[in-house]
Amino acid sequence: MVKIFGEFNDKELKSREFIKLIFSPSSVPLQQRWRNNSLSADFLADYLMTLFHQDENDPKRLEKQIEIKDTISYIANELLENAMKFNDDSSPYPISIQLHLYDDRLSLCISNSIPAAKVAQFQSFINKLLSTEPQDFYIQQIETAEKDGSISSGLGLLTIIDDYGAKLGWKFENLQLLNEPNYPLYYIKNQMKWLNFWFRVRKWFVARSKNPNITIVTTMVQLAI
Amino acid sequence: MDIITEDYSIKYDTETSTIHWQGIMRLNGKEYNPIAELLNEIAALEPSQITLNLQKLEGLNSSGITMLGKFIFKLAKKKTIGLLIQCSKKITWQQKSVKNFQRLMPKLQIEWD
After folding, report:
1. CB A166 within 8 A of CB A75
2. CB pairs below 8 Å between A and B: how many?
3. What is the interface pTM, i.e. ipTM, of the complex?
C-alpha cells in the first residue's frame, strides 16, 4: 500500500548526476552517532560543489553557489536528524539519502522505517504543516514547545519549506517482510563481511517474528537553483 | 557563565549584557538544555537589554532555532528586557531564518553587519 503527501514524484529521481549514502541499521546508540548527521550533510554539500562550474572571476555566481551549498548542508542535516531520531530500529531496512542534480533544480530524498504506531501521528503532522499558514504554524510550534518544555517543535520541515523555499513530499509504503522470501538472499549478495551478514539475518528473523509490518517513509525535498 | 566546547562557544559579557555565539551547533534536542538554562540565568539578572551576537555562529540546526525562539518568546512575554540580535549577511541560516524571530517579538531589533 502506497500513500503520497505533498509534492512527491519518483520519476524525478532520474538525473545524470547523483550521490547516494546508505546507513546500515546500527546497534550503536543514537547519541554516539549524532555527529554523523552533520558530517554526512556537509559531505553531500561539498560533493555537490565539485559538480558546479567554478569561476573565480564571477563573484556573484560564487556567492550563489555557496548559498546552495549551505542550504543543502542545512536541509540534509535536518532530514538525517529526523530519519535517525524516528527510525524504527527493529527494521532491517537501512536509512538512505540521495542528492540529485538537474540543470535548474536539485532534489534530496531520504528513506527510513517508522513504527506502525507512529504512522498516523506523522501523517496528521504533515497535513497540518501543508494546510496551516507558515507564519501561524511557526508561532504555534514555538508556543507549544515553550509550554511543554519540549525541545522538538517540528520546526525543521517548516524552515525547509518557508525559509528555504523548497517543495516537500512524502511517500509511505507498507511492506510485509513475510512476502519477501528473497530478503536474506539480498543480503548474501550484498554483504561482504560474514559476521555482519549473520547479524543482519538474525535481526531480520527477530524483526519478522515481532513486527511483520514495516512502513518506509521517503521524504523528498525539491529546490530550484 | 560561559559554555565552551570544541565545536562552539557561548560567552556572556556582563558589562555590555552581550552573549557572543561562535562555531557550529547541531546538537541533539536535550543537549540544548544547559544553553537554555544559561539564557534563563542571564534573563534572571534583569538587564534592561540583552544582545545576542550571532555573527560568528556559522551553523545552527532547527532544534537550536527552537531553543532561541523559546527564549525570545519568553522575553517578549516578560516585556521588561529589550533584545537586540546582531547577525551576519554572510551566514546563510541567518539570512534565511532570523526574520522569523520578529514574529515572536515585534519589538525585537535586528542588526546586520
Report:
1. yes
2. 78
3. 0.95
